[in-house]
Design brief:
Order of helices and strands: EHEEEHEHEHEHEHEHEEHH
Strand content: 25-35%
Low-confidence stretches: 1-16
Oligomer: single chain
Shape: globular
Length: about 250
């Protein structure tokens, strides 16, 4: 840890209260709620690069919905997925929903762009946000955590019901789940039940996370030939290992 400089605006008593704080080194910035886990990781020389393996796996939604018009994400963190999508899906509208204003206050540290025509960050409860079905989305990313892990209101039967209703036909729910959570199987079962078992749950790249992809509509899972074509086409503009994710989907 000697190569990190502790950010002076995040004093030790704040960490004990569960408030977000940063570690900054010469090459990286990381976001934490405590000293045990890393919430987000940014490389200064390439702010849009997905460093943490689970974020790269979450981008596997492209295999199911390769041309989303609207994406919403519950949980901003350091904005890794938001920045990646802004860079590689420039014509897609992206909304990030973050309940903690202190996390949003760090957006400049993580070089999260200002709000614009195709991008906005709103301070709101994600569980409440998905209850509004007036503006449907093609992809819904759920990566909401606090110092205690996944808030139970983001794992409830009612929450997944609202997630389903928030998606357009052909839409995809993507949920980052903790492998070590003793209720992991319960949450996965709730997703499967709501989405009529049109769900793939796989080990994330890296350690400690599993990613659930839940599809709304027909044609699930995509044919192997379709996925192969999408991997080829998407590989021209994306840097995530879609071929590896596709193999996991096919053999799931």
């Amino acid at each position: 840890m000697s190569d990190f400089l502790f950010k002076y605006h995040a004093a030790l008593p704040q960490t004990l209260a569960g408030k977000p704080f940063l570690y900054e080194g010469n090459e990286v910035i990381t976001l934490h709620f405590d000293f045990a886990t890393t919430q987000s990781h940014m490389c200064k020389c390439d702010p849009e690069k997905l460093i943490l393996g689970y974020t790269r796996t979450m981008m596997g939604f492209l295999l199911f919905q390769p041309k989303p018009e609207r994406i919403a994400m519950v949980g901003l963190g350091g904005g890794s997925l938001a920045k990646y999508c802004l860079r590689h899906l420039p014509n897609t509208h992206f909304t990030a929903v973050e309940i903690n204003p202190e996390v949003i206050a760090l957006r400049d540290n993580f070089r999260i762009p200002p709000d614009g025509p195709n991008f906005k960050v709103i301070c709101a409860n994600g569980a409440v946000y998905v209850q509004n079905h007036s503006e449907l989305v093609d992809v819904l990313l759920v990566d909401g955590f606090d110092r205690d892990g996944q808030p139970r209101e983001l794992c409830s039967v009612g929450f997944y019901d609202h997630c389903y209703a928030k998606l357009r036909d052909g839409g995809v729910l993507v949920v980052n789940l903790l492998s070590g959570d003793n209720k992991f199987r319960t949450y996965a079962a709730r997703i499967r039940e709501r989405f009529d078992d049109q769900v793939v749950v796989m080990e994330a790249e890296g350690f400690g996370n599993k990613i659930a992809f839940a599809y709304k509509g027909r044609g699930f899972p995509p044919l192997a030939t379709t996925m192969s074509e999408r991997v080829h086409d998407l590989g021209l503009t994306h840097t995530v290992p879609l071929h590896t994710i596709a193999k996991k989907v096919i053999h799931n």
